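User: When convenient, might I ask for sequence and structure tokens for a protein?

AI:
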Amino acid sequence: MDIGNRVNNLVDLLMIDFNGGKTIDEVKLHEHPDKDTIVDILEKLRKIIYPGYYRNKSYRVYTVKNNISMLLEDVIYNLIKQISIVLKYSPDYENAHQENISHAVENLTFVFLKRSLR
């Protein structure tokens, strides 16, 4: 089988998956998480998880605890903002009040961080 056919087979597999009707695959014109913010969150998580390897060059912080605290607060703030954008499209939250969505977003943020930072 030539490479062209192999590529086409992979594309066909992806399209079958894409057409599966999953919420994440819906193409919406507005209200997507911000890519730059997500990348920033991931970079900060690396600095939090590996503080000795990925040191923070932007700030003059004298203790690791203060540095991690500052980074973690920023990650939490931005995660909450980004999750808030998409959670309302989940079938469980489509018709939920904003207060319930906000509470769920906060819980999801802390559950994610607790699992990620072990």
About this structure: Residues 80 and 107 are 9 Å apart (CA to CA). DSSP finds four helices and no strands in the chain.
